[in-house]
TrEMBL record, chain A:
It is found in: Cell membrane. Residues 14-250 form the ABC transporter domain. It comes from Rhizobium deserti. PANTHER family: AMINO ACID IMPORT ATP-BINDING PROTEIN, GLUTAMATE_ASPARTATE IMPORT ATP-BINDING PROTEIN GLTL. This is Amino acid ABC transporter ATP-binding protein. PROSITE patterns: ABC_TRANSPORTER_1, ABC_TRANSPORTER_2. GO terms for cellular component: plasma membrane. One of its GO terms (molecular function) is ATP hydrolysis activity. Pfam families: ABC_tran.
Length: 267, 263
């Protein structure tokens, strides 16, 4: 899927300008500039510790940068001072974590229903209906009454995606969502994300799944040491990059076993 | 503490059968058998049983009140200890550290002598009975224990759970209410049971400040009857009674634990 001209002309939904962030003495982000358009699939790749996850956490105000401008869906995130304002933002931006983080004491259905009903004050019956539709979408209808502990990693991650979608977010952040999964279940999660992107959900992915990123992204950025080294279409990053570091990184990963398993499943 | 949390949860059904048979069969059999062999002893015992029972009802009352009060206050204090503001955190921490390290008897003596024997409320003189003071003494102790149990349970929930709630737009209090505390209930049940049975047994200390409870009643009875065999049998009855008070607490907790474990 390549970037279509009309999405490019669309309004930017996320914009980072010269974002600097450090934890204590450690500089994590050293001037990040990004623009993500509505309806785009945007992938952030790069070596571990390059600040990929931190970029996502800046976008939904889980961390606050020392300097720089962050605009998300019309909100200046860097200027939010009150926790209540950050909460308002997080209700509009979904996030899915590497470790799924489902609530173990609740059933799958209740995991999905909890936040919309208690936090947004949504109607219970309507939300349960929505939750069942979402479960069907992630192909887990029969697991509605199961507890997270009874599900495989891949199934839990799909529930986590459904849980994020139940809040009807304007964009979804995926933070290395397949990194904790065994190779056989990676495919089923990627399948769900691919579907979501086809439906036009603005998605920002931090991923180590190079082939997947290449296939579904409109834009890919490569980060290293807290800076964006290069950005462009998947074709540019994965095949025609001039930067030897990117070629080394992409080349070193795409030959791995994970891609082979996924392709074997024909997804 | 009667037994540690891990021991409690590991106790097999076999050992609980042994326990049950000692508590509910062996001790009553000893009392009944001895009474039948020596009928004069049996007659004395039958005569004193209502008096002992009235004492025992006081133990039950004190236990229920102290545990209810202590649990409510303890959970609040435990959460206060984790509050982001020092002026909330500090008083709770001081309270817990002082009272967690105080012996039950000292607290019961302190509350007995600190509080007046009556209070004036809108011009009316209301009695402040000793058993209520014993309840307060035991509730202070159990609240300090339960505060620590609550604090530990909340801290034992992985930070990723907090992160997930944050990502979904929960406030800190909403996260506590809907996600963190429900998970804490299961984790705190075994230690809570220890506190509850400690308090049940601690009610016997109230006899030392003149509360008419089971120990007090048994001492009264043995002083009045002045027979060594009666004294022995009276205290066996006391032991059996405390067993019937504490054992159901353990069983109930085990059942709740199993129910929560399906989750």
């Amino acid at each position: 899927m390549t970037a279509s001209p009309e999405t490019e002309t669309n309004t930017a939904i996320v914009k980072l300008e010269d974002v600097h962030l450090s934890f204590g003495q450690t500089q994590v982000l050293k001037g990040i500039d990004l623009t993500i358009y509505k309806g785009d699939a945007f992938s952030i790749i790069g070596p571990s510790g390059s600040g990929k996850s931190t970029i996502l956490r800046c976008i939904n105000a889980l961390v606050t940068p020392q300097s720089g401008k962050i605009t998300v869906a019309g909100t200046r995130v860097d200027q939010l001072t009150k926790e209540s304002e950050r909460i308002q933002l997080r209700k509009r931006v979904g996030i899915v974590f590497q470790q799924y983080n489902l609530f173990p004491h609740l059933t799958v259905l209740d995991n999905i229903v909890l936040a919309p009903t208690k936090i947004l004050g949504a109607d219970k019956t309507a939300t349960v209906k929505l939750a069942r539709e979402l479960l069907e979408k992630v192909r887990l209808s029969e697991k509605a009454d199961a507890y997270p502990g009874q599900l495989s990693g891949g199934q839990q991650q799909r529930v986590a995606i459904a849980r994020a979608l139940a809040m009807k977010p304007e964009l979804v952040l995926f933070d290395e969502v397949t990194s904790a999964l065994d190779p056989e279940t990676v495919g089923e999660v990627l399948w769900v994300i691919r579907d979501l992107i086809r439906d036009g959900m603005t998605s920002i992915l931090v991923t180590h799944e190079m082939r997947f990123a290449e296939e579904i992204s409109d834009t890919v950025v490569f980060t290293e040491n807290g800076r964006i080294v290069d950005h462009g279409s998947p074709q540019q990053i994965f095949h025609t990059a001039d930067n030897p570091r990117i070629r080394q990184f992409v080349g070193g990963l795409s030959g791995g076993g994970r891609g082979a398993v996924r392709d074997g499943e024909g997804i | 503490m009667s037994m540690t949390a891990t021991q409690a949860s590991k106790t097999t059904s076999k050992s609980s059968r042994v326990l049950r048979s000692i508590g509910f069969v062996a001790m009553p059999l000893l009392v009944i058998g001895w009474s039948l062999i020596d009928l004069s002893l049996g007659r004395e015992l039958v005569e004193w049983i209502p008096y002992l029972a009235s004492g025992f009802s006081m133990n039950i009352l004190i236990t229920i009140c102290a545990v209810t009060l202590g649990t409510t206050a303890g959970v609040l204090l435990g959460l206060m200890q984790l509050a982001p503001y020092w002026f909330v955190r500090l008083p709770a921490q001081v309270y817990v550290q002082i009272f967690r390290n105080a012996p039950a008897l000292v607290l019961i003596f302190a509350t007995t002598y600190i509080f007046p024997f009556e209070v004036v409320l809108f011009g009316n003189y209301l009695p402040f009975p000793d058993w209520v003071k014993a309840v307060i003494g035991l509730a202070i102790l159990s609240s300090a224990y339960i505060a620590e149990i609550t604090r530990g349970a909340v801290l034992s929930i992985p930070t990723t759970q907090w992160e997930a709630t944050k990502g979904l737009g929960f406030s800190r209090l909403q996260a506590l209410r809907y996600v963190i505390l429900p998970q804490c209930v299961r984790r705190s049940l075994p230690p809570w049971m220890n506190v509850a049975s400690s308090m049940a047994m601690g009610t016997s200390l109230a006899s030392l400040v003149g509360v008419h409870e089971l120990m007090h009643a048994a001492t009264d009875a043995s002083t009045a009857v002045r027979r060594l065999d009666f004294t022995i049998i009276a205290y066996v009855v006391v032991m059996a009674a405390f067993f019937t008070l504490c054992y159901p607490i353990a069983r109930l907790t085990r059942r709740l634990e199993r129910r929560f474990n399906t989750g």
